C-alpha cells in the first residue's frame, strides 16, 4: 500500500453542545459544512467528485436506507462509487481503507469522505438511549437492556475493572490521559472543553459506574468532519503537503482466547496494528505521535500495549514514564482527543484522530504542532460487542514523505 | 429484594429466544448447547459461534457462576427510568460454570463486598407475563458470613 494514496484536504466544523438559543444544524447541514471546509483545504469543488467517489459514515440520528445515496442527492454530487460505513468510531478509518482500495484498483481517482451526526438533537425514549434500532430492539438489546446494562459507561467500566484487576494499571495512569487531553484542548480553539484540570480533580470527579468517572467520559456534541483522499499522483498535483497512507490494518470482531470466555484485556489493535506497521515498514518507536481513540482512557492504555509500544499490562507504566504532551517524547491526543474535544456521536468520533494526524503531518497544528512530525498513527475504534471492548479496531500509519 | 419492573425494558420475544424467557418462569437457566462441539452459546445465536453448526439445542445449564468483572452503576444511562429505584445497580459479567459469559445483576450484596472471583447463583424474576430474567446472589461460602 506504501504511499499509493494521500489525504489532500480535511475539515472539521465547530462543535455544538446544542444549548438553548443556539442555532441548531441538521446532519445534512453539518455534512455540507464539513465538506466545504475539506474542499477549501484541498482547493477543490464539489464538481470534482461527479463520477468519482463519495463515502459517508452512518449517522445514528438520520438512520435510513440508501443513506449514502440520499447524501449525494442533498449535496448535488453524482459519484460513480458510494461507500457507507456503519462501524461506529471506526467508520472514518474503514472508509479510508475502502476508498484507498477503489483508488488503487483504478475505479476512481478521488473520494470525498463525510461524517456528521447530531446526537444531542435526537429524540429519545430513555436517558441517553438513541432511537437506533440496534439499541432499542433485536436480540442484542433484549439480552442487555432488560438485564440492567446501562450502556457504554457500564459496558466499558466492566472491561476496565477486569483490566485493572489483571494488570498494574492505576487510576492515576489513566488520569494522565485525561489531563493531557485537556491540556491539549486548552491549546486548541476547536475543542469543546478547554479549562485544564489536575490528576486530583480527575480522581475526585463524580463516579458514574465504578471505576469509570465523569472525566473518563467524552462529551457528546453535534458536528461534522470530512476528508478527501486521492491517488498519490493526483495528490502531488493538488498540494505540496499530501499526507500519505503508508499502512492500515482492520480487525473486526476480534477475540483473544475462546469466543465463549475471551480475555477482554486485549483489543483488536493486537491484530490490526502490527499489520499496519508492517505494511508501512515502520517500527512503533519511529512514530512521532499517536492519535488513539480515547473513549475511554483505559482504551488508550490497551492501545499502546496492543500497538507494541510496550508489553501487555505495561501501558500505565509506559504513560507514566513518558511525556505525553505535544512537545514531549510521546505526543498523544494532540487536539484534546474526544475526551476534551468532543464526540459528534459514536459513529463520527473516529474522524477526529485521523484528521488530527493529517493536521500534524501538514504542519498545520499551530501552537500544539509536534516539531518535525514525519510519521504518525491514528486509530478507529467502533461498536460495543457483548461483554468485550470494540467491535472494530483500525490502525492507520500516515507520513508526509512518500 | 424485589425490584420494580415498571418502566423497565421488556424483551420482544421471538421464536428464537422464547425458550430462554419461558424457562426462567420455571426457575431454569436454559442456554443453547451446540450438538457438534458442545459449546454453550450466550446470548442466543443463529449458529454456534465456535464451530458454525446450526445444531443448537436449548439445554438446562447449572445456575452457578463466577464474577469475571463488575461495575457499580450509579445512574441510569442508555436504559429505562425504571432502573432508578434499583440504584446502585451491581452489574457483572459472570462466567457460568457451563462455560458461557453473561451480563448479570447481582442483588443482596453490598457494593463494597463485590469482588472479582465471587461465586454467585442465579435466581429468576418475572419481568412480564411471558418473560423471567436471571439475576444473581452471592453464594454463601462455608466459614464466611
Characterise the protein shown here.
The complex is a heterodimer of chains A (402) and B (145). Chain A has 402 residues and is of the alpha+beta class. Chain A folds into two domains: 5-123 and 222-243, 3-Layer(aba) Sandwich (Peroxisomal Thiolase, Chain A, domain 1); 150-210 and 245-399, 3-Layer(aba) Sandwich (Peroxisomal Thiolase, Chain A, domain 1), CATH 3.40.47.10. In chain A, 34% of the residues lie in helices and 18% in strands. Chain A is built from 14 helices and 13 strands. In chain A, helix 2 links the parallel strand 2 and strand 3. The longest helix of chain A has 16 residues, at 27-42. Chain B is mainly beta and 145 residues long. Chain B has a single domain, classed as OB fold (Dihydrolipoamide Acetyltransferase, E2P), CATH 2.40.50.840. Chain B has one helix and eight strands. In chain B, the strands form two sheets. Chain B has a five-stranded antiparallel β-sheet with strand order 6-5-4-7-8. Chain B is globular. Chain B starts with 17 loop residues before the first helix and ends in a 7-residue tail after the last strand. The model of chain B has no long low-confidence stretch (mean pLDDT 93).
Distance between the termini of chain A: 11 Å
Provide the domain count of chain B.
1
Structural class of chain B: mainly beta
Compute the CA-based radius of gyration of chain A.
20 Å
Structural class of chain A: alpha+beta
Which fold does the CATH topology of chain B refer to?
OB fold (Dihydrolipoamide Acetyltransferase, E2P)
- The spatial strand order of the largest sheet of chain A comes to 3-2-4-9-1-10-13-12-11
- Greatest contact between two chains: A-B, 44 and 49 residues
CATH-derived architecture of chain B: Beta Barrel
Shape, per Cα inertia axes of chain B: globular
How large is the radius of gyration of chain B?
16 Å
Number of helices of chain B: 1
User: Overall mean pLDDT score of chain B?
Assistant: 93
